[in-house]
Amino acid sequence: MTGERHKAILIGASAGAVQALLAILPALPASFPLPILVVVHIPPDRDNMLVPLLQSKCRITVKEAEDKEPIEGGVIYFAPSDYHLLVETDRSLALSTDEPMNFSRPSIDVLFESAADAFGAGLVGVILTGANHDGAQGLRTVQAVGGVAIVQDRAEAYATAMPDAALQACPSAHTMTIAAITTYLTRLGAA
Amino acid sequence: MPDAIEDIEVQLLLEALFQRYHYDFRHYARASIKRRLTQARTQLGVPTISALQDRVLHDPSMLPRLLDFLTVQVSEMFRDPSYYKALREKVLPHLSTYPSLKVWIAGCSNGEEVYSLAILFKEEGLYDRTIFYATDINPEALAAAEAGAYSVDRIRKFTESHQRSGGKSSLSDHYSAAYGRAVFDKGLRSRVVFSDHSLVTDAVFAEMHLISCRNVLIYFDRPLQDRAIGLFRDSLTRKGFLGLGSKESLRFSTHAPAFADFAPEDKIYQRREP
């Protein structure tokens, strides 16, 4: 696995996201070379408190995505609350206030589908715990363009609806525990 | 790229819209536009974006329907209450020193922001000396803004945000509800001029004391954002104010030096002395 082959990691999570992300992201080494784009469903009126929390715990940069910002390796970008996060074909980030998808803004599907469009093959899409169906179509799109699809093992997910929906849309996705996902991502970065 | 053909089709459709109808979406941020065109294709039941182009070129009645997909911007009254609070507490005290005022709501969509500002100005006693210019490129959105009727389902959220903005009246003082719609008082638009204006192709608007343009620039690419911000600069009186969406900024604009941070947390800028 080389940096050539893998271009970016996408993560979608909802109910139970905080614990899951706190287990995965702080484990990544300071030298982690790939960009990580994350959508977590949070109430629209609140600031994303996950960003400062993870900033204090991660060895790589964690930030809220800004409109028109070029995507850089070794940075974790979070969708701001109440905005969709999209990837442009020049691999910069864009925000939008379009209608919620699956009752969610930001929506995991919107990020995953636009990223699949911009990057093509070389994406790793990860669907974690959550109590809705967002992300299932997006993960399928990532897989369809030649990306890797990973779904959190439902046995340890705080809410299983999202992993279940993702697996139903992408039956050949890899099912992994949080520990296995962490190891997998760390290895991707080390290659 | 997997969808290279669709990218070509999007490009050609946008070019066709411009050449045939002078609606210029060519410098809109592409990922959102493509998403919306894909939705339009599905919902209008055409097989490809090229087929959509064919229809809109030959059938002008398709244009409003397509514009609805391309310009839909979901907005709420008093979205980001702290923005309106900052206007109320920091900007309006400055504006109150002028005998007459002009306010431009650029990209007003269905008018939620227009009524928010009208109520704010009423509450602060500035409404009667202000003219509001509410502009958009979509004629149907302008008509909706002028009608000022919203689904009552949305009113609870609007009321909450209005209170959090420091509202001095009750939102229910400003509308009457009937048949599932809340219709805002005519008195709120007695000093509003609704007008067609494009930030892409049109020129400076008038001498404004406040321009509010929220969550419009995110839909533009960098060069077009720059054009719009230049237009705002040239449309503001000296020391006039510019308010953007909470995730927008002038940081990347070549016109940034023309503005000072006024309420940075709430993305309110002030035009420097020329």
TrEMBL record, chain A:
CDD domains: CheB
Pfam families (alphabetical): CheB_methylest
GO molecular function, a single term: phosphorelay response regulator activity
Catalytic residue positions: 14, 41, 134
PROSITE patterns named in the record: CHEB (PS50122)
EC category name: hydrolase
Ranges where the CheB-type methylesterase domain occurs: 2-169
Endpoints of the signal sequence: none
GO process annotations (BP): chemotaxis
Keywords: Chemotaxis, Hydrolase
Protein name, UniProt field: protein-glutamate methylesterase
